[in-house]
Amino acid sequence: PRMRIHRSSNVNNHFQYFNHDKKQLPNGLGMGGQFDYYGLWISSDFHHGHSKANPLSTTYSSPRLSSQEEFLLDHVEVWQVMEPNETNDDLCARGLTIESAKQSVLDKHPELIEFLEMAGRKMMSKEIREPALIWDDEDE
């Protein structure tokens, strides 16, 4: 894979679309373009997607991002991006703590892991997490 940056074309402001559990509108995550013609679309089932930027996405002037317009997803990886020098005060202003900011949403709601595993979703990062540090009282 190659990494590219596609900045706004200033043609429209359709940067991101997200909808869940609605019957009237498409359910999923779309970036660039418009309904049914997103530069990148991931359906709410996290299995189907499309990239219909043909010849270019009107929002980002990017080409189609997959070899085929319609595709099936094997894996979805999600990253949290934080300011590198975010302080505890910055986090508190957003209602977070340093500990909670480092937690996955699945750590906060462990029952969701069971539902995802029952649905056949493999927890990709479950085995590669850093272990929690345990401090002995004698070492303090």
Structure description:
This protein has 140 residues and is an alpha+beta fold. It has helices at residues 88-93, 98-102, 105-108, 111-118; strands spanning 17-19, 28-34, 37-43, 48-50, 70-72. A 5-stranded antiparallel β-sheet has the order 1-2-3-4-5, with no helix packed on it. A hairpin with a 4-residue loop joins strand 3 (37-43) and strand 4.
Please give a quick description of this structure.
16% of the residues lie in helices and 16% in strands.
Entry keywords:
single chain; 140 residues; alpha+beta; five-stranded antiparallel β-sheet
Specify the biggest β-sheet: 5 strands, antiparallel
Total helical elements: 4
Question: What is the H/E order?
Answer: EEEEEHHHH
Strand content: 15-25%
Give the strand line-up of the largest sheet: 1-2-3-4-5
Count of DSSP E strands? 5
Q: Calculate the terminal CA-CA distance, rounded to whole Å.
A: 47 Å
Instruction: Output the structural class.
Output: alpha+beta
What is the global morphology? globular
How confident overall, as mean pLDDT?
A: 79
Helix content: 10-25%
Low-confidence sequence ranges: none
Radius of gyration equals 19 Å
